[in-house]
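Quarterly update from the structural biology core.
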Amino acid sequence: SEDALEFGLSKVDVQKLPARKIITHNDLRIAEYASENGRPLFILLNKWDLVPKEARHGLKDACGLVFYDVISHSAKGIPILTTNSLEPSSLREVIPTALSLFRKWNERISTSKLNRWLQALVAFKPPPLKGGKAIMPKFISQVSTRPPTFSINVSRRNSMSQSYEKFIINALRSEFDLYGVPFRVLFREPSNPYINKNRNSRSGNKSKNKRNLLKVRKGRRFSSS
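Predicted structure, tokenized:
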């Protein structure tokens, strides 16, 4: 469809909604589509002059909560702008907001900066013990952009609680101002180099024993001839 084509070509999505109308399932689906495709998104509430002044703050908060419920952490702190036909100047923030989101979407954060942040975060609030053993996030790096994607090495990955994962995600968004930008965090357990080393050692020993056995057999055949 034409809408799908526009979304496919866009880098930053702005969703224009009538301020006085109920948010529809289709509105939420469009926002979800943008999130699934890793696109930055902000909301533009139109005809803001028709909303009573005493209801404006609550309406913006409610709008943000609805989108947060649908597209998860990607919508937390999503920019919500307002505009109306009586004040053309109300559109001045649209382009700067789109450019800001685009910059964050393309930004790459240095590994050293990320790991200084992670060490301070874990020192401030260590993850809870599991079975008396520590579960430590040890290393973080940004593996890609558009959307920003981060990889975190965690000892005993399967034992880390979802609440602590959310704590890290929220702290990451807050520290590096990723509001309105969908980003991904991959929690991984680093491979154990000693496992492969032991496997290679056993494999090498088997090959060595096999060669020695062949030498012995050849020696026996030579002696008996």
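The CA atoms of residues 158 and 217 lie 50 Å apart.
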